[in-house]
Amino acid sequence: MNCKQCGKCGAKWLDGQLYWATGAKAKEEDLAGLVCNNLGDDQCINPKRGDVTGDTWEKRDEFAQKQQKEWEEQRDR
Ligand SMILES: [Zn+2]
Fold this sequence. Notes:
Strand content: 5-15%
Structural class: alpha+beta
Low-confidence stretches: none
Distance between the termini: 53 Å
Radius of gyration: 16 Å
Shape: elongated
Oligomer: single chain
Number of domains: 1
Mean pLDDT: 87
Number of helices: 2
Bound molecules: zinc ion
Order of helices and strands: EEEHH
């Protein structure tokens, strides 16, 4: 089995599939947007570092705010 770990963000690749440090499956684009682009140095082995097509904290924030609004609206009913 081919196993690589990023010393910078702790993400692991097993046979080409990326996993978060938590063990959940991840996309390289998301890892780049959430972690590697911010930490951004040469220790990071994410091949998608610098890619901005994945998840970012801005998108996550937007999503979380929408989610919270929906919950609040449901509570009001
Ligand atoms: Zn990394």
